Amino acid sequence: MSITTATSWPSPLPQRRLGDFNVSAIGLGCMNLSHAYGAPPPADVAERLLLGALDAGCNFFDTAALYGFGANETLVGKVLAPHRHRFMLASKCGMTGVTFADGVKRVIDGRPGTIKATCEAALQRLQTEVIDLYYLHRWDKQVPIEDSVGALADLVRAGKIRSIGLSEVSGATLRKAHAVHPIAAVQNEYSLWSRNPEISLLGACRELGVTLVAFSPVARGFLCGQLRDVSGLDAKDIRRTMPRFAPDAFARNLALLPAYEALAAEAGCTPAQLALAWLLAQGEDIIPIPGTTSLAHLHEDLGAATIDVAPDLLSSAEALISRANVTGRRYNAQAESEVDTEEF
Ligand SMILES: NC(=O)c1ccc[n+]([C@@H]2O[C@H](COP(=O)([O-])OP(=O)(O)OC[C@H]3O[C@@H](n4cnc5c(N)ncnc54)[C@H](OP(=O)(O)O)[C@@H]3O)[C@@H](O)[C@H]2O)c1
To answer: How many Å lie between the centroid of ligand 1 and the Cα of residue 144?
Structure first.
C-alpha cells in the first residue's frame, strides 16, 4: 500500500482532494476579472477580490493564458505572488491570443513546442517557479492528445508544473491522455443546467481517480437570479454568442427561475448557493469554481461550502433545472466544434 501525503493550505473552508493537493471545496475562477462578461473591473477592485478570496479561505485559483490574452495571469501574478505559499495555482495552455496583422485572435494550438513556450510565458506572468495544475484548455484536434499530454509530462519532469489537467474533453479522450501521464483533474462545464459530464466523463473520472473541476457552476450568472434581461449585456459579453442566452431561449429559461428561487428560499440559501450546494452534493470529487467581480458575491458563493441543503430540495432543483426543461444548447456551432465534450 502506498501512502501519499497531500499538500494543504490553512483554510476555514471544507477541503477536497485534487491529485496530491487538498484545496477549498470551492475555488475562484479568475476569468471574469479580465475577460468574458463585459468590461473587466478596475485594477483595485480586482485586487481586493483576489485578496478577499484568499482571506476568506479560498486556496484554489483558476486562470488561463487565454483570459485577457495574458492579462489575467499577469493580474493573478501581481496580486497573489507575494502569497504564493497560501494557495494552489491552476492555469491553462493550448488556447491563447496570437497577434495577426488585424489584431490579436484566439487560437487553439496544442503542439508540444507551443505548449512549452506558453508555459514559460505563464511562469513569467504569474511570477512563480511552478504552476500546481496546468490544463490543456482545449484539445487541438490537429494534434494527437498523446502528443500534447506528452509535452505536459515533459513540463512535470522539468519541474515547471506539478500536475496535469484537461478541459472540455470526453471520457474517451481522458482515458487516452491518462495512459500517457496521470491526469489530476478535468475542468468541464457542470451545473444544474449543463449536465453533459454525466454522459460519460464523470464515470471515467471516477474510474481513474480524476477530480472534476466544474466551471460556470452558477450558469454564467443565470442561476443567481439577477440577470433578467439579456438585451443589456455588453456588446462583447460572450453570453451573446450562446444559444441559451439568445432572447427567445432566455425568456423560456427565465420562466424556470421563480420556482427555482422558491426552492432556494425554502432551503434558506440564495439561488447561487443552491446551485453550488447541488454540485458539491454530486460527489466529494467535484470542485466548483464560480467567477465573480464582487466581494459580496464571492462570500456568498464560498458560503455554499458550509451550508446543508435537504436532499429532497436538491432533487427538486435537479428536476426543475434539467436537460428536459432548459432551452438552447450550451455553445453555438463554432464553439461546439472546438470542444471534445459530448453534448446533449
Ligand atoms: N475551461 C474553460 O473552458 C472555462 C470556460 C468558462 C469558465 N471557466 C472558468 O470557470 C470560472 C467560472 O465560470 P464563469 O465565470 O464562466 O461562470 P459562473 O461562475 O457560472 O458565473 C459567473 C457569473 O455569475 C455572476 N455571479 C457569481 N456569483 C454570484 C452571486 N453570488 N450572485 C450574483 N451573481 C453572481 C457573476 O457576476 P458578478 O461578477 O456580478 O458576481 C458572473 O457574471 C471562470 O472564471 C474560469 O476560471 C473555464
So the answer is: 30
Residue 1, pLDDT score: 41
Residue 121 sits in which domain range? 15-338
Our count of domains for the chain comes to 1
Residue 88 CB neighbours (<10 A): 23
Distance of alpha carbon 20 from alpha carbon 26, whole angstroms? 17
Question: What is the average pLDDT value for the chain, to the nearest integer?
Answer: 96
Q: Is 344 a domain residue?
A: no
- CATH number of the domain to which 190 belongs: 3.20.20.100
pLDDT at 2: 44
Q: Which sign, positive or negative, has the C-alpha torsion 326, 328, 334, 336?
A: positive
User: C-alpha cell of 327?
Assistant: 432551452
Q: Which of 189, 239, 295, 297 to mutate to test the pocket of ligand 1 (most atoms within 8 A of CB)?
A: 297
What is the reported pLDDT for 10?
84
Cα separation of 247 and 233, whole Å?
11
In a domain, 142, yes or no: yes
Q: State the distance from the centre of ligand 1 to the C-alpha of 341, rounded, in angstroms.
A: 20
In a domain, 320, yes or no: yes
Question: Which position has the grid cell 466523463?
Answer: 201
- Tell me, yes or no, if 67 is annotated catalytic: yes
Please report which confidence band the pLDDT of residue 6 belongs to, taking 50, 70 and 90 as the band edges. Answer: confident
Kind and range of the H or E run holding 188:
strand 185-189
